Each structure stands twice: as C-alpha cells, then as structure tokens.
Amino acid sequence: MGWFAPIYAYCERIAPDFLAEPMNLLTNVAFILMTFLMWHSAQGQLMAQILVGLLALIGIGSALFHSFA
C-alpha cells in the first residue's frame, strides 16, 4: 500500500471520494455550527472562548481526517 492509496478500513467509509463518510460529515458540521452559537454566550469569558476554539478545532480536524482518508 502506497502513501496516497485510499483507505476503506475504518468508520462507515463507502468510497474513496470526499463525501464518503456522510454521518461523520454531518456530526462535524454540527460541531462547527455549535461553535458559532456558543461564541456569543462566551463573550467576556476567556476560558469559555478557549474551549469554544478547541471545539472548533476538533470539528475541523475531524472533518479533514474523515474526508481526506
């Protein structure tokens, strides 16, 4: 197996293309949408803003991991 060969051995991957894991994409979009909603309630609270930023990074990182296998 080469470095750039597609991998099918994890999650619900059904094809080698970008949208091959639809449920993971849906949950990652939910992570990212929640960060926008939570950002307004975290105004003025540094630790809350840091946690919201980490939540955004988790959503983006997971989306990239599950999209570009």
Radius of gyration: 15 Å
Beta-strand fraction estimate? under 5%
> Which segments are poorly predicted (pLDDT under 50) over 5 or more consecutive residues?
none
SSE topology string: HH
- Overall shape: it is elongated
Mean pLDDT: 84
> How many separate helices?
2
Sheet with the most strands, sense and barrel status = none
Tell me the structural class. mainly alpha
Helix content: 55-70%
* Count of beta strands: 0
Write the SSE topology:
Elements: H1 22-41, H2 46-67
Helix pairs in contact: 1-2
Outline the structure in words.
The chain is mostly helical. The chain is 61% helix and 0% strand. It has two helices and no strands. The longest helix has 22 residues, at 46-67.
Question: Could you list some keywords that capture this structure?
Answer:
mainly alpha; elongated; 69 residues
Question: Summarize this, please?
Answer:
Helix content is 61%, strand content 0%.
